[in-house]
Amino acid sequence: MATLLDDPMERLQDEVSCSICLEYLKDPVTIDCGHNFCQACISDFCKRGAGSATGAALCPQCRTGFLLSSCRPNKQLANIVEGIERLARRPSQGLVEALCEKHGKKLRLFCQDDGEPICLVCDKSREHRKHSVLPLEEAAHDYKMKLQEAADILRKMLAEARNLEAQEEEKTSQWKEKVEKHRALIKSGFERRRQAMAEEERLLLKHLQEEELGTLKKLEMNWAFLLGQCAGLQNLILEMEQKCQEPAVSLLKDVKKTLSRSEGISLKEPQPILIELQDSYDVPGLMESFQRYNASVTFDPETANPYLLLSDDLLSVQVVDQKQDLPKSLSRFETCTCLMGREQFTSGKHYWVVCVDHKSSWTLGVCNESVSRQGIFTPSPAIGFWTVWLRNGDEYAALTSPLTELVLRSSPKLIGIFLDYEAGEVSFYNGDTGSHIFTFSDSFSETLRPYFYPGIQAGGLNDAPLVIQPAKDQSSLSLLTSETSSYH
Q1: Which residues are in the B box-type domain (predicted)?
Q2: Which residue among 209, 257, 265, 401 is the one 20 to 30 A from 482 at the CA level?
């Protein structure tokens, strides 16, 4: 084994190194606790930790709180650093070299089999005669390269981990934003129900809060998990970088163990979390309040695809195998098996209900009068459609760009559609329970018409018709005195 005398120069270099970047202090500043850092390093540290350049943060070394604005430039320390840098660049003089404990000779070689420096006498001995031996500096150079390569790999892993951490933070922000929007929507609905609805509002907000806290807890666990990975990687990188700064003998001591630790590390991704709300809530009396806006909607046969069969009262439509013998028309959807309603809306509030019982596929909503009716298309607001669909019996989505998946507590048999033209809103409800499904917010400038797509037959699984519910006699209804249009 070899022994080295402590190097005062090394200790001095450590004292004037920044614990954040591990380099010599550049434009050193002193914080409240007395520790010194590069001005740029501590500023970046504060921005990442506190979110602003003037916020409070904890000292990276002793965890004492400080303000970035209270940092003091240390010109005297800057002069000392400059002097040490000049000394470090001079050739070493008078350094005590390590000697072999067995033979008292200078350590000139490195035994790769035993992983230790040896002298020329050791190399000739029977113990090392058949071992693989390299010059000490060459071995140190080789292992330094390996350490640097391992550190580079770990840096990439750290960057990926930080990217994942940032993604989780963004998800948390998006989640909180969605929760706030949802909370505002719920509150606005209950403001017009006053004391009679107070208990219902309280229960819904409690449910939302539980959902919010449950998901936030999962997100925070992911964040903490990634933070732990980052800390572990940073510590290992720091250890390797410090190892690279050591003299050859000290660097080569246990170097294989250090490398094996880095090789055994792999980046683990956090638990996947669905950032979607259970987007439904019930407001008693809401459906009754819509009745004042009942629209007598019927299907428009002039727009119906030839494979659609309409009832005589124009309230029912289904897909058939036999193509209908219909005249060619620019008004007709020639490729997609869909159609419009006869009614045209240019202002006001309108509500209608469609029965979708026993259907596994459909699309409902409104569209611009001017939409193209030729060729295949996917409805979206960008081309003048505001619609919701069902696919494969249980996959609900709002046709935004991209799709917005919808999670419903139950499969509705009735779909209520509420159009508020001036507000630029199209809202969808479970007509059985009054649960809100989705609301489009846009601005309308064209004539709007109801839009219907009964789906494909799917081998008999989707044979049931779409049926428009007839508008009820408004005179027989006990209407609520307060409007609910602001609720949507």
Answers
A1: 95-136
A2: 209
